[in-house]
Amino acid sequence: MPDAMLQIRDLELRYAGVPAVRGLTLEVGRGEVVGLVGPNGAGKSSTLLAIMGMVPPYRGEILLEGRPLAGRKTEAIVRSGVALVPERRHIFPELTVEENLRLGLVGRRSRDGASDDLDRVAALFPVVRDARHRAAGVLSGGQQQQLAIARALVARPDLLLLDEPSLGLAPAVVDGVFEALAEVRAGGVTILLVEQRAQFAVGFADRTHVLANGELRLTLSPADAGDSERITAAYFGA
Amino acid sequence: MTVLQTLVDAVALGLLYALVAMGIGLVFGVMRLVNFAHGELLTAGAYALLLTNDMPLAVGLAACFGAVVALALAMEVVYRPLRTTTPTTMLVTTFAVSFLLQAVALLAFGARGRNVGVLSELNRAVSIGDLRVRWVTLVSIGVGALLLTATALVLARTDVGLQMRAAAMDATTAQLLGVRASTVIRFAFLLAAVVAAAATVLLTVQRPLVTPSYGFQLVIPALVGVVVGGLDRLVSATLGGFAIGFATAVLGDVLPADGRVFLDTALFLLVILVLLVRPGGLFGRTRAAWERV
Ligand SMILES: Nc1ncnc2c1ncn2[C@@H]1O[C@H](COP(=O)(O)OP(=O)(O)OP(=O)(O)O)[C@@H](O)[C@H]1O
Ligand SMILES: [Mg+2]
Fold first, then answer.
1. Which among A45, A75, A94 is the top mutation candidate for probing chain B, defined by the most B β-carbons within 10 Å of its own β-carbon?
2. Within-domain flag for A104
3. What's the helix, strand, coil split of chain A in %, to 5?
4. What is the share, in percent, of chain A residues with pLDDT greater than 90?
5. B188 vs A236 pLDDT, higher one
6. Which ligand 1 atom sits nearest the alpha carbon of residue A21?
7. B130 and chain A in contact, CB less than 8 A
8. Which is nearest to A75 in space by CA: A47, A46, A58, A54?
9. Measuring CA to CA, which of A32, A59, A177, B7 is 20 to 30 A from B116?
10. How many angstroms does the Cα of residue A39 sit away from the middle of ligand 1?
11. Which pLDDT tens digit goes with each residue over B229-286?
12. Average pLDDT value over all residues in chain A
């Protein structure tokens, strides 16, 4: 295992006293891609939001490069190199594509090299340049997903958190998104990939954990990608 | 008095109210807080002008802008714990701050109104063709248009302006991208204060009699405009402020003077009613909490 980028230890999250995540322990090494899959309400998004400092842990801890995140504000966590592509994308539909990207720059530690990074994401996702003066809300779902990923990348994160990038997209469009993510991975960015549709994550990630009802059920390797029976069984609590 | 003359005066007052309304809208955008104490910013500016009546104009203007900005930044600090509370708590707190500040002004300066003399020469009229227009009307139109344009440019072109717009549209996502709530909120108060101070200078020329409720009485109609226009869009809030200022000026020319008292009270009730029933404004997008879900 390479040195740890992210460690989650015995994490418990609660909403109004009701547990959403229970005793979650996982680790993401530098440069790795780790998948986190599970059915509706499993606690996947909550876990990502806890890493971002938006949901305070009820118990347990989260460490970034060995340092506990407890008590750090979201704005500080972003600036220590973590970027989230949120579920349902959450681009700003009334702002232009370019303005959406500029908002991604807010999370950078320094503006040095920002224009190189903007060029790089434009090469990866040409739509962010071709449609730069258009309102982001008029883009197609796939283009909005590309914009959401581009917006996270221009923050120059060491750790990229992706929450269901395949959500609502046609399979061919999903393939395009994952081809781009493969390039991001090749660029050395560490990735924690949340998916509800497990097939997309298992084949892509170095390891994929199955989360159901707030608890880890199983860990899968890319070799398990075709084993839909095991995945289904873990989803439904067998 | 011609119709055209009434209209020119109404545009001037409309622009001053638009500035006040825009300040309220800027703060609401990034904080979801309707600052009833916005009027006390004007009151502070007016008393600063009063206290520097006999000093050079530059000193008076500096005192006015300084007092308004300082009070606005102090309000931002006082309101900080409210960020995580309910809209009702916010509303009640800003009411309390407003009345507290009015009480302070009452203790410090007494209930009797006093006249600000700064720039009173702007009340002289110029003839433009058949029209007799006061200088303050022309200056108000110029300064109002300039400040509205400048604010629009700040919001459209600068990084902090972009962050303010993003925070107003979707605060959670803005936060996830690293936008600092404290930065955008402080900047919103600062912008609102600068604009309010400029409005104060021009308003005191037209209405020189300063009392502890000076700003409060001006802000209630502006708030009506903001709320009726729609709080969640800065442009409609500002337009609403303009419309109320415009209407007030026209009515002021048309109605007898003793009708004023009832007008203010009615407007005040109206703003509370609309805030409760349609917090997003009559033409706004958001609905009352119990309608949402
Ligand atoms: N803000 C919230 N307030 C209260 N309960 C919440 C909140 N967010 C999530 N929950 C609850 O926590 C549990 C986990 O939700 P979460 O969104 O983390 O699941 P998920 O795995 O991301 O699901 P999905 O695949 O549907 O996105 C669910 O039972 C959900 O109802
Ligand atoms: Mg989710």
1. A75
2. yes
3. 35, 30, 35
4. 87
5. B188
6. 14
7. no
8. A54
9. B7
10. 11
11. 888 789 989 999 998 888 888 777 776 667 666 766 766 676 677 777 766 666 555 5
12. 94
- pLDDT value at position B230? 84
The Cβ of residue A45 has, within 10 Å, a number of other Cβ atoms equal to 21
Q: What is the DSSP string of A125-158?
A: -THHHHTTTSBGGGS-HHHHHHHHHHHHHTT--S
What type of residue is B240? G
Q: What is the ipTM of this complex?
A: 0.96
| Residue found by looking up tokens 């790089």 in the block | A120
Is residue A9 pLDDT above 80, yes or no?
Answer: yes
How are beta strands B125-128 and B131-134 bridged, if at all?
Answer: antiparallel
**pLDDT tens digits, residue range B75-92?**
999 999 998 898 889 989
In angstroms, the CA B284 to CA A55 distance is 31
Task: Calculate how far, in angstroms, residue A36's C-alpha sits from the geometric centre of ligand 2.
Answer: 11
Q: Do B178 and A99 touch (CB under 8 A)?
A: no
Could you tell me if residue A38 is inside a domain? no
Angstrom distance (rounded) from CA A34 to CA A12: 20
H or E stretch at A224: none
The residue behind tokens 């581009």 is A150
State the DSSP H helix or E strand holding residue A36, giving kind and residue range, or none if neither.
Answer: strand A33-37
The verdict on residue A220 lying in a domain is no
- Is residue A182, in this structure, part of any structural domain at all? no
A-facing residues of B in 144-173 (CB < 8 A) are 159, 162-163, 165-166, 169-170, 172-173
Are B14 and B143 contacting, i.e. CB atoms less than 8 angstroms apart? Answer: no
3-class SS at B115? strand
